[in-house]
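Lecture notes, structural biology module. Today: joint structure prediction for complexes of two components.
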Amino acid sequence: MPNKTFFWFFLPTGLAMILFIGLPIISTGIQSFYAQHDQVVKEVKKCDPFGCTVSIVVDQEKTSKIREEKPLGKFNGFGTYVDRNHLAIEEIGKFWNETNSFGEFVDQVTNLPFYKALIFTLTYCLFVTPNVLLLGFIIALSLNAVTRRIRGPLIFGTILPMIVTPLVGSLVLFWMIDAEGIIGANLQMLMDDPYLSLKSSKTLTWITIIIYGIWHHSPFAFVVFYAALQTVPQEPIEAAIIDGASRWQRVRHIVLPHIYPVVTFVALISLMDNFRVFEPIIGFSAEGSAQSLSWLIYDNLVNEEVILFGSAAATSMMTIVGIAILLAPVLIRTWKEFRTAR
Amino acid sequence: MRETNMKKILISLLFLIFGTSAYADCNIKSGSINILANDFPALRTFVETAKGCKGSADFKVTHSSEHNKIAVPALTANPSEFSARIAANSSIVPLMNQDLIRPLDDLVKKYGKGIQDSQLITIDGKIMAVAFMANTQHLYYREDVLKELGIAVPKTYEEVVAASEKIRASGKMQYPYAAAYKAGWNLAEEFVNMYIGHGGEFFKAGTAQPSINNAKGVATLNMLKKLAGLSNPDYLTHDSEAIKVEWESGNVALMTLWASRSGTLLDDDGDAKITASTKLTGPATVAGGNIPAATLWWDGFTLAKNRSDADAEATFRALAHAAANKKMVADAADQAVWLIEGFKPGPKSIGVIEAVKMKAKPYPMLPQMGLMHGALGSEIVEFLQGKESAEQALKDVEAAYMSKAKEQGFL
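The predicted structure, tokenised, for the full assembly:
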């Protein structure tokens, strides 16, 4: 396609992307550099059905004046980014000086909310993405081998986890792993431990969420791989069979190289999706044991009675940076291949 | 047979007609009313009663348990989406902080006939809300279980622990205690209650500096952990609804739960034997203190600032009609502890009445309290899981709170 045609083709999409993705990101970025104005408070008498007390309120007269002058708030630079609830630069420095062993230092750092969330998010990504790719590929290969007659229903069954709304899917599993649910109760019997609870242990909660993630995302990888498998040319495979190549050798040397670009694509999308893991945490009520970066944003926006726009914006920006870093190796590689191909 | 049925229908229809015509005194000529409220039976009754006198005004209501998340954005818009918001001690604070609600003095003077002075929430001499019901968290117990094991009804949390241990030792129940310990708002609320029971203060007097990392804070956490140890191991995922289900399936003999839930626990649904022996008592005290380890809450209505005066007037008249309605209070006496004149407390309101008698403190109505509540909800979890010390957990709460408070301009 000539570049000019491509440009006109892409223009509407590009405009929509700038309008609905680019501008909001810029606005979020600006917001992350601002904090609320200093609150002017005053002592007043408050009375309710249970009696009167002297207490404080925000002085609206003075505050509204400051707000009108600078509606965005007080410029805070990277203040929100480096505070204790985000990158915690100061605290980490302190821990480094105060702790005696490296293990203790790591303990202290992973106790900070941002790093706690980052570790869960990365663990989730690192376990879910490769497993999704592997499982999706195995399912695609196996389904490709069964007779055409039963393939339709099998494919439908396989992509069900993706059709089920994430929240519903996780809720179903949540009830099943309850101490009185079908999985929970059977596990207790199997392990011979009536106190075993999948929800109360941090490790088990993580494992549950990761397994759920693999279950939920595999169909996507499967669908794409299955489509790609249809394009694998039959001639080299037949030639390989005649040469006496085993099934594994055929997959390794013919099928995989052929669908390699698709694998990259699925890996990219998967990584991006998994880095924003959110629904299972809500569905499993796992806030106590597992927090992700997206959950932190949600927490700042809705769980407090006061909305922390600055915090939420800062975490959003860092999530974007995080995804960019994660994707960088794959993107660089794709770019290089693109260059050599030309 | 059919005829008697017809008669019944006719009579009820007549009642309906007369019922509405009895509200003739508040027929509102114009304006539009739109109310945002939490979703539980008493509030539905209240809003329905207000609707009864809407006259020719436009009337809309949104009942949602997610009301907290909508309120500030919806009332910030100008004109505001809602003309009134049913709020409580804690949820009025963000509205006050952002200056989103209007003083009601003139309206109360003009249309507030029948509203008692004790219902008025005044801040700095201005009426900001009109309360109509009270709520608190208190103890529920299974009379049959306690009787069988010869346990007296516990009055302190130490007794709750002893009683639960006895029940567990008897082999009757594995996890005899329950409270809403779900990580987040619910867990923080339990901390607030227990800390107030220990006589603790959340902030250094007159400032927004936190002051919970002290002996009282540690004692609070240790008591919460003891109680958690007697609860279902999944306690960090259990909210009020989940423990209500636990109770109704007979897994629990002692429970701390909202008074406003008593209605659904004592209704005809579920196992009749459990319902019959479900009894209410006041909130428990802790560590030899006199004040109960509980907070008092009121629910009341506030009016949006960013809405025309005509709408505010129409809304106030309708809601004031409900907030001074003796008939509603008599009809729905078991739905809530109404603060309205003419309320005769029934067996379902024992908890709140006892709490008031014991001089329970109201939930702190401070501008920065929401941030403290949020920090508590996430930072004390690891202590309960046994992953860190009480001191470390309290230090974390203070640090998390400080960062948020700095961002919000309180420090």
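Point to remember: Chain A touches chain B through 58 residues (CB under 8 Å).
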